[in-house]
Amino acid sequence: MKQFLSFVKKEFFHIFRDKRTLFILLGMPIAQIIIFGFALTNEVKNAKIAILDHSKDASTASLITEIESSRYFEIAESLHSDADIQTAFHKGIVKMVMVLPSNFGNNLKHFNKAQVQLIADASDPNVANQLVNYASAIIRDYQKRITNNRQLPYTINTEIRMLYNPQMKGSYNFVPGVMAMVLLLVCTMMTAITIVKEKETGTMEILLVSPVKPMRIVIAKAIPYLLLSTINIFTILLLSVFVLEVPINGSLILLLAVSILFILVSLSLGLLISAGADTQQTAMFISLIALFLPTVMLSGFMFPIENMPTPLRVVSNIVPAKWYYNIVKTVMIKGLGVTAIWKELLILSGMLMFFLSLAIKKFKIRLA
Amino acid sequence: MSEQKAITTNKLTKKFGDFTAVDEISFEVNKGEIFGFLGANGAGKTTAMRMLCGLSLPTSGEATVAGLNVYKENEKIKRSIGYMSQKFSLYDDLTVKENMRFYGGIYGKSNAFIKQKTAYILDHLHLEKEANVLVKSLPLGWKQKLAFSVAVFHAPEIVFLDEPTGGVDPVTRREFWNMIYVAAAGGTTVFVTTHYMDEAEYCDRVSIMVDGRIDALDTPIRLKEKFNAASMDEVFLKLARKAARAAD
């Protein structure tokens, strides 16, 4: 036990002496939450648009006010002719142009029918789509208001409720994603690097000649990172609850317990990488390419898995972060309990057993 | 018999696939002896040493270290030996004292033992002022002497030194050998590989490995007589020239 404690103590010395790395490890979750929370967002806010109003009557004026007062749009330009539309897009400032044909108000009143043209810059298809949807919705609302008093023969009113995330905030989606990413980076990459570092400097040989059991070396190395990761989880949760206002709807204990399971999976992956890599650079590359990229791409946090082609959907199943991401979403956002995540739990536990036994086996072979 | 011998090997062999790195070597090392283990690069010295330290399993043959079987009593052997590798093996980002405390700790020594031994070593190496200095800021010669002190920190029966004086200046090498003599006088058996033939002269007995086999084993004086050579350097060259295996 004393032997083990001196080892853990030594690992803490390594981490605390390397102030820069420590700073990165503890600062990374804060930076990521802030970047994702405030800078990177796929919600469209204050998109610049231009208006070409051929009609210039009371109806178009009130519709334009409606558009302008929404938080999605900012009218950057008023155009005067059809030719201006091209120039407006060429300048690259506006993302959408709304064209109101002449006699808009007149047609609306006397023929009960008027047209609006929406021209969007689809070089970014997602943004174009969203802008068109928002604008259509505003126009629909406007139409509803002016037909309010009249009885239409057939109407279907859609009543929409956004469950679990009524304000449709992007942060509900990325907080679980950032958790998966940070834990994976800290645990997998750092464990792999710290073990490979001992191989590189030659101290590993000395340790293997000493009476310390190899498994103990590994556990002692993992403990400080387990602790750091737990601190990171708390940082992320505190920031998301108090800064981003993402609630923890489910059990905090369950959330922490599954996070520790995921940390263990990540640590065993780091161990597996360290068994295969001989230099710190290799360990870092393997961690980044084989783990970090799939985590970002295939966990469902950046891109929805349901929309992927079948081969990628199949591959996504071996990405541990995908399952953890699902669990965090289910527990934290939806507020559900163990019964809702037993499948994911089972898969992660299976992965833990598999990676750990493989890593131990590899670690032993190296000694022979 | 093995009680009086620190190390015995009998036809110890290590093969990597078709390549026989160590080919049926048999020798004995007496307790308290300084045993020089010589050979050109790639002759199989390090592989042989790794088998004796329990870092590598022999393919065939027998060996005992401190009277313990290398196949079965691996864990016990680890407690009885110290090891200093070719690469520098202390932690750069730990202080001199922390390094000693760590190695004392992993050998399960008591705090009192560690404290007393640390003070003793610092005193002998005149490193009292540097006790709380990070090892990376020490000059190489000091580091090597410190690494040796750490290798014998837990008072092992046998200490294995793998080219311990590589890259060290002649004065420090001399001081290093004085430390080896002190350790040997204290009863520790020293098993040392080296490239420096002047160091071979300091050993009680020397074995010379060529192509995985031991071609000569005796005291330096008798080896010089036998090969009709003025120095160990000449002895070594006469033997090593026969090597079929290219040095790496």
Walkthrough of the structure:
The complex is a heterodimer of chains A (368) and B (248). Chain A has two domains: 2-40 and 169-367, no CATH class; 47-146, abc type-2 transporter like domain (abc type-2 transporter like fold, 3-Layer(aba) Sandwich), CATH 3.40.1710. Chain A has 14 helices and four strands. Chain A has helices at residues 2-17, 19-39, 58-69, 82-91, 104-111, 125-146, 171-201, 203-209, 214-242, 252-276, 280-298, 310-316, 320-333, 338-367; strands at 47-53, 73-79, 96-100, 117-120. Chain A has a four-stranded mixed sheet, sandwiched between helices. In chain A, α3 links the parallel β1 (47-53) and β2 (73-79). In chain A, α2 runs parallel beside α9 (214-242), α9 (214-242) packs across α10 (252-276) and α13 (320-333) runs antiparallel to α14 (338-367). Chain A starts with a helix and ends with a helix. The mean pLDDT of chain A is 87. With 248 residues, chain B is α/β, with parallel strands linked by helices. Chain B has a domain at 5-89 and 157-240: Rossmann fold, CATH 3.40.50.300. Chain B contains nine helices and ten strands. In chain B, the strands form two sheets. Chain B has a six-stranded mixed sheet with strand order 6-7-8-3-9-10, with helices on both faces. In chain B, strands 2-1-4-5 form a four-stranded antiparallel sheet, with helices on one face. The chains are: A alpha/beta (368), B alpha/beta (248). At the A-B interface, α1 and α8 of A face α2, β6 and α3 of B.
Question: Descriptors for this entry?
Answer:
heterodimer, A: 368 residues, alpha/beta, B: 248 residues, Rossmann fold, 4-stranded antiparallel beta sheet, 10 strands, 37% helix
Report a brief summary of the structure.
The complex is a heterodimer of chains A (368) and B (248). Chain A is α/β, with parallel strands linked by helices and 368 residues long. Helix content of chain A is 68%, strand content 6%.
